């Protein structure tokens, strides 16, 4: 049986579309884990990146932390946290947040730090306060780059959230781990395809978000 | 009036950017800070709106220390224009211009109305209002920069090399525009440039700074050209400052003659009468009085000027409006050595020989301080 057959069989089986182990419920769980982790990561990465980028201080320390966080093996961290904290969402959130913070933090820092200095100088010279300079000048200009950082974090987290199933939680990873255990490759391939699809869908979502929140003056200029 | 009282800016590494500089910037005129790179001109400008704080000395605005009010309030009372304009890429042109009015709490409609008014004032087409900066040329962006600085009608305008990033033709247009706006608004402008020609063109007063942040000379442009304080200033002014200084003398005092002027349909008798005058050439004008070209007096005697081949009359100068430098330039470039003077509508009001222009130059010099100094030295 080919891959396409597996996929076809998985999606056309009506049993996979409802119930506790159905696609809608697993998808909802998957998105819930992913977005919780991303929300926490953004709450850490965005303000830190904005402040360090705006002041231009702490860049070295930041790069060090980011590199260290990237070096953490996600699965290893998951198992470690699971053993330490027991069953629950927290041991899953920690490795996912550790995965998502570096791209958000580093690109936000770089985006603000490398923003064109001329408009910032003009804004200060016109009597704009530091908070206004950050939110009305630096942030709007840095937004495309910041969004690209959040986007790559999102894609990584959405793909990696599958590991939640490894420690007995739900999400689309359930199909992969259960399928492997039951040697039911239809479910394994179907689950993997769903996760891949979700990651691709995120690219589309971010395209729309960028159209919505980035000023045409910044968005179109970069083309 | 802005009084700069012996300010010094010394950095932690020991370099001195500005060294004990004192200046009085008069109200309602353009004061240019000019000098080579590293002379502290930009540092001086940025100390006026406290973007940089001096190490010692103080700056007074209308008699009160600039530190006596909150820094952002001070900055909002001074327009600030920088190189490359520094526009906000994410805001439309109207919103860019309306930045300071909005900060001052104007409502959106009022700020917008004011922005459109300013776009007209700086010569920007109103169709650009909803565009973003990246859609504008460098020259247009710089006009937006000037409009943005003028938006809240501040009495003071600080301009830091605003025109140095655009090409020479656009720069000339922007300079002319600034002079026109200044004639209307009468702001107190401090203008930084490294270009001495720009300084002479724009400045009512010019402060020449030398490397290390010391004031070399503070004088009106024509005095600077006639009386450079020392070898540094003289060198910085460059060559032909004598000719350049003629820009400050009006052509209104020139003694023009109408002697060699004939209409294109003039009869043989009239031509003979004109040809008998001092000039070896006659200037032929059309029936409207506009110049057509020169013809050698002896060739014209037969009449029938319409069928003769004429020498180009070159560029005429506008009598009274343009300077002695323009008149001299016209004479030098004319194939006959005579300059053609026209009125605002382009009709010939007279012609002048190089000799006549030379006399006018000598007369003009006699009435100027530079000439007085030379006369004293001769005695």
Automatic annotation (TrEMBL), chain A:
Subcellular location field: Cell membrane; Membrane
GO biological process: glycine betaine transport; transmembrane transport
Keyword Membrane among UniProt keywords: yes
Topology of this chain in the membrane: Multi-pass membrane protein
Keyword terms of this UniProt record: Membrane, Transmembrane, Transmembrane helix, Transport
Domain of life, per lineage: Bacteria
One cellular-component annotation, GO: plasma membrane
InterPro entries listed in its UniProt record: ABC_transp_perm/SBD (IPR051204), MetI-like (IPR000515), MetI-like_sf (IPR035906)
Protein name as catalogued: Osmoprotectant transport system permease protein
Source organism: Actinacidiphila guanduensis
TrEMBL record, chain B:
Organism superkingdom: Bacteria
SMART domains (UniProt xref): AAA (SM00382)
GO MF entries: ABC-type quaternary ammonium compound transporting activity; ATP binding; ATP hydrolysis activity
UniProt domain ABC transporter: residue ranges: 2-236
EC number(s) stated in the UniProt entry for this protein: 7.6.2.9
Keywords: ATP-binding, Nucleotide-binding, Transport
Top class in the EC scheme: translocase
Keyword set includes Translocase: no
Transmembrane segments: none
InterPro entries to which the protein is assigned, alphabetical: AAA+_ATPase (IPR003593), ABC_transporter-like_ATP-bd (IPR003439), ABC_transporter-like_CS (IPR017871), CBS_dom_sf (IPR046342), P-loop_NTPase (IPR027417)
SUPFAM superfamilies: CBS-domain pair, P-loop containing nucleoside triphosphate hydrolases
Record family assignment: Belongs to the ABC transporter superfamily.
Name of protein: ABC-type quaternary amine transporter
High-level lineage: Bacteria, Bacillati, Actinomycetota, Actinomycetes, Kitasatosporales
